[in-house]
Design goal:
This protein has 243 residues and is of the alpha/beta class. Helix content is 27%, strand content 35%.
Length: 243
């Protein structure tokens, strides 16, 4: 059965999410590297929004660099993990739909992030257009919006659809992909050692297949200046600036 993104994370991925990223500290280190690639050094002050903040992979490094961060996610457990590591940092975790993030802002944002593969988790292209409209309205003059996502427009085939995620002595994660015209169904297969036995749990959810050109055009139609690049992990990275 295909689950919603919320149910998939709540019942399957959430409890192993830090492990999938190599552990909490490793995730923060990678988050800092991602910010370095954007040219985001220490700032005297700044207001940031992290959409799909999860465990704080980017929110915590942002706060350490001087930003006040509103961290939005639909998974309360992931935000609880963020809060446990963010004592004393200017981060406000909020459990909310990403499209409602402006309700939790008091002022215009200098920076809005939607990193990882969060954008493809939205239910439809109409939701993406609506989110971008909210982003454009929330950015202050000269503010930036940065999103990354995987390009699923070219379907993998045969055994290439099996993708190893991570393995450790007691846990193995693999995902398997199935494609239709608009979406890719992701089957996450988690093997965990239970004494002398291995236990398998499987959960499936869908992601949007987004053409980078379509995403870029949707941002430009809102009057944003957009540059495109590729991350070291071969994700599409778009940086949009409000003039």
């Amino acid at each position: 059965m295909i689950k919603s993104v919320r149910d998939h994370y709540a019942g399957h991925l959430g409890r192993v999410y830090s492990w999938m990223l190599g552990g909490f500290e490793s995730a923060l280190e990678q988050g800092g590297i991602d910010l370095d690639a954007l040219g985001l050094g220490p700032v005297a002050r700044g207001r940031a929004v992290d959409l799909g903040a999860g465990i704080g992979m980017h929110a915590i490094p942002l706060a350490r660099r001087g930003f006040s961060v509103v961290a939005i996610d639909t998974d309360a457990a992931l935000l609880e993990e963020l809060s446990a590591h963010a004592a004393g940092l200017p981060i406000v975790p909020v459990v909310a739909n990403l499209l409602d993030f402006r309700a939790h802002l008091e002022d215009a944002a200098d920076l809005i992030l939607c990193m990882g593969d969060t954008l493809t988790h939205l239910a439809s292209r109409a939701d993406i257009v609506a989110l971008f409209a909210e982003v454009a309205a929330a950015l202050g003059a000269g503010g930036h919006f940065v999103c990354t996502f995987r390009n699923y427009t070219t379907a993998l085939s045969a055994e290439s659809r099996f993708i190893p995620v991570r393995s450790s002595p007691d846990r193995i994660m693999t995902c398997f992909l199935e494609y239709d015209d608009q979406r890719v169904t992701v089957h996450d297969l988690l093997h965990e050692r239970d004494g002398a036995q291995w236990r398998l749990s499987v959960s499936s959810y869908q992601k949007l297949r987004l053409d980078p050109g379509w995403v870029r055009d949707a941002l430009m139609q809102l009057g944003l200046e957009v540059t495109e690049s590729t991350t070291p992990s071969r994700m599409v990275r778009l940086m949009a600036r409000r003039p």
